[in-house]
């Protein structure tokens, strides 16, 4: 093993050597630079290899042949080695990336870069306080040099601001250090840590000053304006270095310093970290300059890591796993994003739409964002999981809440940005593609996935990258060049195959959900055979969602469950985002979904109380003070997915704007994931009381109001798919209501809704989607009279609406029947009034759907439309058959579930399935007889009428009586727009968008607060210095005053 | 063997319905000091409509409208036992219980709406929006009342509900649960398409609304339903709230009396606009229903 | 021809341009046909009786005579007892009472409404104006002889005829129907070209199909 | 008397910072920071000072054996050396920046250098 | 005004912190652990009479390396930055010639100054002074020359070679310590020699000499670069 001192020696030596080279030998100088960086990387790498794989113990490196504390010493361990490797690699990449700039600036710039990397390594290795200071100053000065490499002239100002601030920092540092030395008699970090007691006898202030100095380098709020300016104006490669390398090194310095301070200073670090994390993320919401946004994000991430450092004692052994996960994820992602920013010509966020033409770059962008947000399978995900668990287990709930809040904000602006990339108009400026830059950025992608694998291996929870569904989904990435039909076939086969292989191991409940989600998904995917192009990006996203669903059903532990949940959320987000105008809706979807997911994370963490491998089943054993909170958190999380009222506003847009075959996927299938979660939750935790309020009772109300509001809003929609989307809210409200009744039949009804809603909503979405595809609009009032042109779609819709409305003899009635039987034993009656009101309202929107699309007046421009494409009609016909079969023999699926549910409610079966009649305690129902009776009556009457009118004259659309006049034009004759005007007059007040107003106000508040507060960053370097000073004084007053 | 009996029930009820509606109309005329229509006028009108030589059709759903409508009426009648304690006139009540009846009411409404909409006539569509809007509010108190009654008797079987009301007038739900009955009767007014809730059929504004394009045998079939459906619906009310009927004479009497309630109200009150009637149901009828449910 | 009835080109959602001919695309082009009576005489007799006892009048007051129809609904005359009632839509009516003079403008609406009634259908001309123009015999915009434009079954003379006269007229009509002689619809179908030519000779802006189903 | 040096150092720091934070001219700011740096160095040295002792150079005056009792703490002196040099480096760098900024903008007013903000 | 007041208030706070430090400060009566070690062991172990030098060059040699690097870095950046725009500046200011006294004086003094500088850094391990001081003195000679003739050109190439070579030697000696002695920058690559003589204390004087050269070169480099800006 080569001593890490050689990293320093090589870096410096090469820098000095560069001075010897003649000015003309640019290539040689560049070669030396690269070689030196590679050598540094190799040394660090070899140490990492030794520590990680051979389990070597950390090594102390002495200088001057003298023991510390009398001479400076280095320490190299796993953390040091990996960070040093990170420094060297980012440095190397920066050198590669900046090749042109370096050639232009000459060997001096290369020397500065080398010294920068060397100095960051020094910061990491050294165990001597003053030496740390020296290396940090080296970092500062070389930063001052490297900032100037930017083509942006404004970098000059940014560098000066940085220098001003760093002057202040070094003053604090030196004063603090010398007094600390005075108190302890040593400059060695470990020595000082050992002499902690001495230090704090008289030297607490000294330590405080040092800590402030190091923390100031971490750009804490509000003393961070200078950092942003550097991020914004520096060369992207340097910004990457500044974010990844400087950030990581300084974080490690802070970590070392806190070692001296000991446990009592950790809360301060956490407090500063979390404030920075949240505030920087809020500020980032209003940024429209990409690099500045990345700057805010960097500051936020470093704040988060600082928070984690502050929780070092809590995390115990997991500390390096968590902090390292977040740190490396941040470093790689941020470096990658900055590198990408160098490829984008213009600086607005929307200008990144230029990436769209290059799927590989888009993939890189997605990877980085996922890495930053901490989505599975990236390290941040595992880290977030462990962190949340540690915090929850130790009662740090406020901190956990703030972390999750900040993370949500971060996800919001990052995903908003991603939406811009995919959806905004491609700018004129385009891309500045350069092979080497691209390669550098893509190498970060590789590293990201390697890290993902590594963290998966390190986590005790199982590696997500070894989960077959996920791998199957990822397989579609390299296969994306294949034609869509082939990929679709593969996807369908995969879904059916997985189900076929696994269904024997499912219990009845899992089986129902799995059947709806996997083969059910395959049926919907049949509609995708209709696309002709390659459909880049569709299959990875769709299969990611299905992978999440497949894993969700099989999840045994809370980790597996949560990971699957996030996977399906992300997959479906990408799917939804594919819609033409879905950008804002997809954003609101992902924000709400992640918000819900974070609540779930908090819930699981609270439930686990530190147990590493928490089984879902163990939710039942969660004890009293936590149980109701766990229940509430998880329930809200799941209800976000089912779009219960209050958190429903994402659904209409997301489902309506999605593509034709995506809407049924996300509506028919994805919503069921939320129901599955609720099932699992209620089966394990049962009834919970919070402050004396029965939580299931609250859910009952939420379900009822969702049903009412969903239905009510649906009747006022002009957009057919929005109508269906609102209807889903209502339907999910019913299901939620059934679940919350906490009785056998209620649950059975919810399950019935799972199946029914899947069938008819998928069918309706496909049918409406097919119509929208042919007519080129989703506004119902622009359609009309399509029945003869699209008869199959009409049949599907008609069967669908009869089923949805719950009119016998179709299967919707079964749901209503079970519902009535269920409420007979329910404890609460008032919410039922609302459900009763909601029921008939469904007729209104359903009638409107079929009337305004298929009946009424045919429009001129639609006279020649054809039936929807075969592949879109085929699944509809399958659903029609399925609906009829399910209507005739509902017992086929439900009796098993009934038996499965029995043990939860005292053992006996809820319904009697014997014979053709289904009997409950209160009533009975014989689907076959009903179907038969109605069928016979119907057929008889129909035949009779046909016979009587055998000579009837078929007439056309304007052959209607019109008070002696004739209609003007079809569009004035089709009564469709504002169809339920009287209803709006009577009950329109209930459709006040209170929830939307609430969330919009909240968003607006956050944005305006950010917009006003960020004006404190006036751009004046002096002001920034004052901020820093104020920061120190305020912390002094708050902290030392209280200490 | 149920089928012939069911057909017999159907036959009796259709004839009774035709005569009774004519009779009620005649009573109304007499109140206005008119002579009124002949008692058999409904038969003649139906026959005339079947006798028309020409007819037009707007498409297949145009046929299905009346079919749905009448199927709804016939189905509703046949899924509910007509005569309590009679094996012959229990119809097909084995197929389902009260809930079936409750939801089957909508079958005809929905189908009719579909058929009328096929004609492409804006007046039909306007009539339907009015009808459906009003229905959502009108059905709510009825649903609440039904729920209250089901809770009261702890069963959803119509037969058992009737059975529970036997043994004297005071055992009727009318007296044991007056709130539910009051709510249900208000709902009944709304569902009978009589004033003040008949803006759906405004004859001159939107020439009788949904069926504006219907004529000849289509209209005849709907006339049949117009005779049948109120009776079928009243049978449900009678069974739930008024002790059912043990014999045909009792059946005839009770149906007539219940029907007269809506006729009586109808001749006294002027018309409501749709939003007015919705508010009326929500303000007056629904609270009664809620009280009924809560107090059971 | 009104602008909305002219042919026009529209663009379909998939970008094709198609021609719309409103008269052909929106309206049924078939003409009326003569409808034979029922196969057997006895059934036809029964039907005719039912038709005569169920006269549904289209509620369309064309001229000042409309005022004389309202009293028929009142207790004093109570036409309902004769099976007579008013329907708001031509589809459901089988009796068209032309109540007084017809301006050319109204005639157009009358023809349309008449053609939208289902046969067998009857026309009663009310008042002198429908017979020969009455006091408007030289008017520039009323028609003189209703019979030239629609097959009239019964005329009720007078200016105005009183409600009693109307009742008498309806009774007369019933007799004609029962006798099987009220075949105005078939007559109209059989002489459709003649009627149409007459109608078009006075109605110059004929902006509707030849036969309004 | 020991504290006079240290107090002077602190006062220099505060003076320097006041100058640096209130003057708009970049050159004045740089000079102010130099003042503050001097103060820091003074504080550093003052901490190492011990009354009645001499410089840490072993010669005739301070024999090796007596060193422990005769010399002052040598470490702060070593640190000061480094600190001075680093301060010098930063000052030089800032001067360069000032020069470039002046070249760029034609002014040395720091409040004019605000094209990056928010 | 508000700004001044705010700054004043904040500095008042900082002053409070400083006052706290000052009041809490009790001068030590004895050398602390580290200092005691230096006092006791420097002479025997390293053979350096000037303990500060021993600390600077050996015990905390890494700091010094960093320090040298700071200078190198600063000089490099200044070179880099100022070289950037130089091409535009063709215009040369006409300066009055330096006075006779200054010219003659500088000719007389420069060799002496250089000699003094070399003396200071060569004897750094024995007497107060050392590489930094010596280097600064050397650079002052360059400053004097610049004052005399502001348009004077020093050979950038020479300076660059000097700073690089001395830097490389510094590192090389450090690495030698790693290979042949107790660790990086261990001065005992060469024998300690007789205490108090010029050739003693291992490689310490050599290192310090290189430092001196390097510092001199860096300062000169910075001075010339900054001086050249003057000509625009």
From TrEMBL, chain A:
InterPro entries: CPA3_Na-H_Antiporter_D, ND/Mrp_TM. One of its GO terms (cellular component) is plasma membrane. Residues 127-409, 559-835 form the NADH:quinone oxidoreductase/Mrp antiporter transmembrane domain. PANTHER family: NA(+)_H(+) ANTIPORTER SUBUNIT D1, NADH DEHYDROGENASE. It comes from Thiothrix caldifontis. This is Formate hydrogenlyase subunit 3/Multisubunit Na+/H+ antiporter, MnhD subunit. It comes from the Bacteria. GO terms for molecular function: lyase activity. It holds the Pfam family Proton_antipo_M. The lineage of its organism: Bacteria, Pseudomonadati, Pseudomonadota, Gammaproteobacteria, Thiotrichales. Belongs to the CPA3 antiporters (TC 2.A.63) subunit D family. It is found in: Cell membrane; Membrane. The chain crosses the membrane at residues 6-22, 29-52, 72-97, 109-126, 132-150, 162-181, 193-216, 237-254, 266-286, 293-312, 318-340, 360-378, 398-419, 440-456, 509-529, 536-553, 559-577, 589-609, 629-651, 663-686, 698-716, 723-741, 747-772, 784-808, 828-847, 868-889, 924-947, 1024-1042. The keyword Lyase applies. It is a multi-pass membrane protein. Keywords: Cell membrane, Lyase, Membrane, Transmembrane, Transmembrane helix.
TrEMBL record, chain B:
It comes from Thiothrix caldifontis. It is found in: Membrane. The keyword Transmembrane helix applies. The keyword Transmembrane helix applies. The chain crosses the membrane at residues 6-24, 60-80, 92-116, 137-156, 168-189, 227-245, 251-270, 277-295. Keywords: Membrane, Transmembrane, Transmembrane helix. It is a multi-pass membrane protein. This is NADH-quinone oxidoreductase subunit H. GO terms for cellular component: plasma membrane.
TrEMBL record, chain C:
Keywords: 4Fe-4S, Iron, Iron-sulfur, Metal-binding, NAD, Quinone, Translocase, Ubiquinone. Pfam families: Oxidored_q6. This is NADH dehydrogenase. Residues 63-172 form the NADH:ubiquinone oxidoreductase-like 20kDa subunit domain. GO terms for molecular function: 4 iron, 4 sulfur cluster binding; metal ion binding; NADH dehydrogenase (ubiquinone) activity; quinone binding. GO terms for cellular component: respiratory chain complex I. Belongs to the complex I 20 kDa subunit family. GO terms for biological process: aerobic respiration; electron transport coupled proton transport. InterPro entries: NADH_UbQ_OxRdtase-like_20kDa, NADH_UQ_OxRdtase_20Kd_su. It comes from the Bacteria.
UniProtKB/TrEMBL annotation, chain D:
The chain crosses the membrane at residues 29-49, 78-99. Its EC number is 1.6.5.11. It is a multi-pass membrane protein. Pfam families: Oxidored_q2 (PF00420). It is found in: Cell membrane. InterPro entries: CPA3_antiporter_subunitC, NUOK/Mnh_C1-like. GO terms for molecular function: oxidoreductase activity. Keywords: Cell membrane, Membrane, Oxidoreductase, Transmembrane, Transmembrane helix. It comes from the Bacteria. GO terms for cellular component: plasma membrane. Belongs to the CPA3 antiporters (TC 2.A.63) subunit C family. PANTHER family: ANTIPORTER SUBUNIT MNHC2-RELATED (PTHR34583). This is NADH-quinone oxidoreductase subunit K. It comes from Thiothrix unzii. The lineage of its organism: Bacteria, Pseudomonadati, Pseudomonadota, Gammaproteobacteria, Thiotrichales.
């Amino acid at each position: 093993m080569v001593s890490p001192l050689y990293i320093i020696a090589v870096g410096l030596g090469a820098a000095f050597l560069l001075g010897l080279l003649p000015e003309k030998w640019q290539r040689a100088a560049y070669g030396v630079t690269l070689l030196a960086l590679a050598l540094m990387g190799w040394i660090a790498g070899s140490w990492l290899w030794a520590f990680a794989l051979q389990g070597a113990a950390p090594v102390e490196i002495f200088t001057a042949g003298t023991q510390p504390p009398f001479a400076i010493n280095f320490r190299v361990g796993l953390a040091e080695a990996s960070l040093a490797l990170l420094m060297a690699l980012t440095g190397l990449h920066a050198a590669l990336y900046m090749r042109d700039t370096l050639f232009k600036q000459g060997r001096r710039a290369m020397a500065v870069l080398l010294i920068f990397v060397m100095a960051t390594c020094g910061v990491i290795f050294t165990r001597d306080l003053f030496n740390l200071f020296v290396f940090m100053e080296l970092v500062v000065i070389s930063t001052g040099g490297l900032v100037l490499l930017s083509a942006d002239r404004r970098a000059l100002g940014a560098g000066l601001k940085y220098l001003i601030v760093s002057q202040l920092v070094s003053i604090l540092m030196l004063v603090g250090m010398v007094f600390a030395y005075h108190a302890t008699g040593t400059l060695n970090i470990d020595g000082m840590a050992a002499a902690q007691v001495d230090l704090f006898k008289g030297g607490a202030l000294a330590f405080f000053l040092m800590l402030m100095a190091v923390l100031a380098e971490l750009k804490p709020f509000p003393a961070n304006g200078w950092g942003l300016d550097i991020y914004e104006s520096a060369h992207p490669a340097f910004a990457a270095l500044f974010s990844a390398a400087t950030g990581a090194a300084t974080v490690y310095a802070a970590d070392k310093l806190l070692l001296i301070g000991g446990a009592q200073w950790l809360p301060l670090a956490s407090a500063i970290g979390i404030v920075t994390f949240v505030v920087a993320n809020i500020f980032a919401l209003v940024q429209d300059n990409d690099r500045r946004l990345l700057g805010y994000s960097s500051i936020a991430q470093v704040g988060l890591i600082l928070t984690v450092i502050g929780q070092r004692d809590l995390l115990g052994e997991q500390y390096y796993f968590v902090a390292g996960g977040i740190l490396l994820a941040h470093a790689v992602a941020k470096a990658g994003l900055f590198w990408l920013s160098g490829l984008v010509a213009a600086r607005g966020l929307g200008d990144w739409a230029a990436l769209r033409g290059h799927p590989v770059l888009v993939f890189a962008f997605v990877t980085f964002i996922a890495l930053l947000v901490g989505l599975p399978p990236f390290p941040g995900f595992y880290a977030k999981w462990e962190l949340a668990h540690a915090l929850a287990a130790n009662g740090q709930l406020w901190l956990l809440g703030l972390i999750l809040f900040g993370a949500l904000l971060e996800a919001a602006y990052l995903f908003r940005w991603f939406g811009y990339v995919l959806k905004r108009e491609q700018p004129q400026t385009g891309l500045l593609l350069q092979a080497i830059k691209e390669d550098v950025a893509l190498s970060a992608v590789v590293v990201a996935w390697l890290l993902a694998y590594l963290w998966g291996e390190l986590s005790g929870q199982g590696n997500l990258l070894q989960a077959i569904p996920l791998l199957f989904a990822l397989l579609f990435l390299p296969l994306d060049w294949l034609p869509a039909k082939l990929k679709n076939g593969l996807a369908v086969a995969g879904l059916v195959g997985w189900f076929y292989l696994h269904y024997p191991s499912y219990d009845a409940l899992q089986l129902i959900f799995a059947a709806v989600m996997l083969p059910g998904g395959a049926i919907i995917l049949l509609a995708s055979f209709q696309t002709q192009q390659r459909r880049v990006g569709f299959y990875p996203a769709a299969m990611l969602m299905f992978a999440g669903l497949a894993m969700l059903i099989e999840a045994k532990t809370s980790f597996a469950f949560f990971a699957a949940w996030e996977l399906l959320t992300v997959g479906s987000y990408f799917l939804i985002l594919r819609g033409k105008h879905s950008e804002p809706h997809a954003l609101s979807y992902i924000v709400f979904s992640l918000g819900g997911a974070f609540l779930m994370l908090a819930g699981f963490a609270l439930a686990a109380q530190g147990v590493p491998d928490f089984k879902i089943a163990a939710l039942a054993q969660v004890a009293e003070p936590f149980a109701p909170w766990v229940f509430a958190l998880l329930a809200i999380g799941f209800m976000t997915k089912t779009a219960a009222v209050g958190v429903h506003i994402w659904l209409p847009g997301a489902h309506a704007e999605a593509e034709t075959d995506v809407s049924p996927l996300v509506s028919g299938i994805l919503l069921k994931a939320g129901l599955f979660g609720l099932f699992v939750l209620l089966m394990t935790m049962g009834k919970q009381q919070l402050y004396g309020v029965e939580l299931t009772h609250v859910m009952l109300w939420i379900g009822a109001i969702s049903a009412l509001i969903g239905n009510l809003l649906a009747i006022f929609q002009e957009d057919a798919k929005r109508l269906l989307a609102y209807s889903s809210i209502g339907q999910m409200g019913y299901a939620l209501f059934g679940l919350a009744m906490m009785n056998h039949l209620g649950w059975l009804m919810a399950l019935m809704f799972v199946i029914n809603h899947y069938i008819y909503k998928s069918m309706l979405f496909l049918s409406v989607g097919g119509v929208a595809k042919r007519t080129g609009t989703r506004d119902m009032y622009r359609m009309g009279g399509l029945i003869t042109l699209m008869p199959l779609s009409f049949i599907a819709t008609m069967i669908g609406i009869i089923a949805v409305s719950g009119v016998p003899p179709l299967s919707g009635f079964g749901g209503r029947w079970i519902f009535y039987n269920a409420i007979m034993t329910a404890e609460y009656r008032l919410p039922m009034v609302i459900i009763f009101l909601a029921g008939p309202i469904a007729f209104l929107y359903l009638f409107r759907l079929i009337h305004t699309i298929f009946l009424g007046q045919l429009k001129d421009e639609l006279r020649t439309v054809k039936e929807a494409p075969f592949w879109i009609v085929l699944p509809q016909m399958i659903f029609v058959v399925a609906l009829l079969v399910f209507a005739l023999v509902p017992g086929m699926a439900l009796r098993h579930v009934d038996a499965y549910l029995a043990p939860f409610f005292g053992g006996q079966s809820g319904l009697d399935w014997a014979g053709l009649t289904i009997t409950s305690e209160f009533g009975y129902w014989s689907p076959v007889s009903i179907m038969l009776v109605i069928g016979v009556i119907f057929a008889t009457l129909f035949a009779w009428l046909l016979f009587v009118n055998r000579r009837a004259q078929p007439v056309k659309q304007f052959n209607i009586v019109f008070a002696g006049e004739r209609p003007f034009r079809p569009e004035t004759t089709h009564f469709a727009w504002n169809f339920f005007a009287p209803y709006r007059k009577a009950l329109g007040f209930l459709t006040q968008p209170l929830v939307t107003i609430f969330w919009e106000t909240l968003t607006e508040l956050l944005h305006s607060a950010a917009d006003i507060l960020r004006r404190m960053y006036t751009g004046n370097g002096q002001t920034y210095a004052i901020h820093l000073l104020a920061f120190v004084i305020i912390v002094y007053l708050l902290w030392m005053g209280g200490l | 063997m149920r089928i012939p009996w069911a057909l017999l029930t159907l036959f009796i009820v259709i004839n009774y319905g035709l005569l009774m509606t004519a009779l009620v109309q005649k009573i109304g005329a007499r109140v206005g000091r008119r002579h009124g229509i002949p008692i058999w006028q409904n038969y003649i009108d139906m026959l005339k409509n079947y006798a028309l030589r020409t007819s037009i059709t707007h498409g297949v759903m145009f046929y299905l409208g009346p079919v749905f409508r009448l199927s709804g009426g016939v189905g509703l009648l046949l899924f509910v036992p007509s005569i309590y304690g009679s094996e012959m006139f229990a119809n097909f009540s084995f197929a389902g219980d009260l809930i079936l009846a409750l939801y089957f009411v909508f079958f005809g409404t929905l189908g009719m709406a579909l058929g009328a909409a096929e004609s492409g006539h804006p007046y039909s569509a306007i009539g339907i929006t009015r009808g459906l809007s009003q229905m959502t509010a009108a059905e709510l108190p009825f649903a609440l009342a039904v729920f209250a009654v089901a809770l009261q008797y702890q069963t959803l079987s119509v037969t058992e509900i009737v059975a529970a009301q036997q043994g004297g007038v005071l055992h009727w739900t009318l007296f044991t649960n007056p709130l539910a009955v009051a709510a249900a009767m208000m709902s009944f007014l709304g569902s009978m398409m009589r004033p003040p809730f008949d803006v759906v059929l405004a004859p001159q504004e939107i020439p009788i609304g949904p069926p504006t394009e219907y004529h000849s045998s289509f209209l005849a079939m709907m006339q049949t339903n117009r005779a049948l459906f109120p009776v079928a619906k009243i049978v449900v009310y009678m069974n739930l709230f008024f002790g059912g009927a043990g014999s045909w004479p009792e059946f005839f009497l009770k149906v007539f009396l219940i029907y007269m309630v809506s006729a009586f109200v109808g001749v006294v009150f002027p018309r409501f606009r749709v939003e007015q009637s919705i508010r009326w149901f929500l303000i007056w009828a629904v609270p009664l229903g809620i009280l009924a449910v809560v107090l059971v | 021809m009104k602008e909305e009835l002219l042919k026009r080109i529209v663009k379909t959602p998939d970008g094709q341009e198609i021609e719309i001919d409103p008269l052909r695309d929106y309206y049924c082009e078939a003409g009326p046909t003569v409808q034979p009576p029922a196969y057997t005489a006895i059934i036809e007799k029964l039907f005719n009786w039912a038709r005569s006892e169920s006269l549904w009048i289209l509620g369309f007051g064309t001229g000042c005579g409309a005022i004389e129809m309202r009293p028929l609904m009142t207790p004093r005359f109570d036409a309902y007892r004769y099976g007579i009632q008013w329907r708001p839509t031509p589809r459901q009516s089988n009796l068209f009472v032309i109540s007084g003079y017809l301006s050319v403008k109204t005639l157009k609406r009358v023809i349309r409404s008449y053609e939208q009634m289902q046969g067998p259908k009857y026309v009663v001309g009310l008042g002198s104006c429908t017979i020969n123009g009455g006091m408007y015999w030289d008017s520039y915009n009323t028609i003189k002889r209703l019979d030239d434009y629609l097959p009239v079954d019964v005329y009720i003379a007078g200016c105005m005829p009183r409600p009693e006269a109307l009742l008498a007229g309806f009774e007369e009509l019933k007799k004609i129907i029962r006798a099987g002689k009220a075949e105005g619809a078939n007559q109209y179908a059989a002489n459709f070209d003649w009627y149409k030519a007459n109608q078009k000779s006075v109605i110059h802006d004929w902006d509707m199909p030849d036969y309004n189903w | 008397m020991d504290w006079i040096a240290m107090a002077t150092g602190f006062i220099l720091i505060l003076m320097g910072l006041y100058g640096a934070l209130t003057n708009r001219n970049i050159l004045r700011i740089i000079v102010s920071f130099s003042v503050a740096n001097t103060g820091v160095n003074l504080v550093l040295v003052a901490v190492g000072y011990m009354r009645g002792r001499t410089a840490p150079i072993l010669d005739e005056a301070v024999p090796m054996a007596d060193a422990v009792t005769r010399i002052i703490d040598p470490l702060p002196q070593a640190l000061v050396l480094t600190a001075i040099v680093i301060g010098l480096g930063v000052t030089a760098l800032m001067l360069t920046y000032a020069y470039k900024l002046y070249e760029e903008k034609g002014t040395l007013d720091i409040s004019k250098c605000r094209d990056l903000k928010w | 005004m508000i700004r001044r007041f705010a700054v004043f208030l904040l500095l008042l706070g900082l002053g409070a912190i400083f006052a706290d430090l000052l009041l809490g400060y009790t001068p030590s009566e004895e050398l602390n652990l580290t200092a005691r070690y230096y006092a006791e062991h420097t002479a025997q172990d390293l053979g350096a009479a000037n303990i500060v030098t021993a600390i600077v060059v050996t015990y905390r040699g890494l700091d010094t390396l960093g320090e040298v690097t700071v200078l190198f870095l600063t000089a490099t950046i200044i070179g880099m930055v100022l070289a950037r725009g130089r091409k535009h500046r063709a215009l040369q200011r006409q300066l009055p010639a330096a006075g006779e006294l200054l010219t003659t004086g500088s000719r007389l003094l420069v060799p002496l100054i250089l000699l003094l500088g070399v003396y200071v850094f060569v004897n750094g391990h024995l007497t107060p002074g050392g590489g930094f001081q010596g280097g600064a003195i050397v650079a002052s000679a360059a400053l004097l020359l610049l004052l005399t003739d502001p348009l004077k050109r020093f050979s950038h190439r020479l300076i660059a070679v000097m700073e690089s070579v001395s830097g490389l030697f510094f590192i090389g000696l450090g690495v030698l310590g790693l290979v042949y002695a107790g660790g990086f920058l261990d001065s005992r690559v060469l024998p300690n020699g007789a205490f108090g003589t010029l050739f003693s204390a291992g490689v310490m004087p050599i290192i310090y000499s290189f430092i001196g050269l390097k510092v001199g070169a860096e300062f000169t480099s910075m001075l010339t670069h900054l001086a050249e800006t003057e000509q625009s």
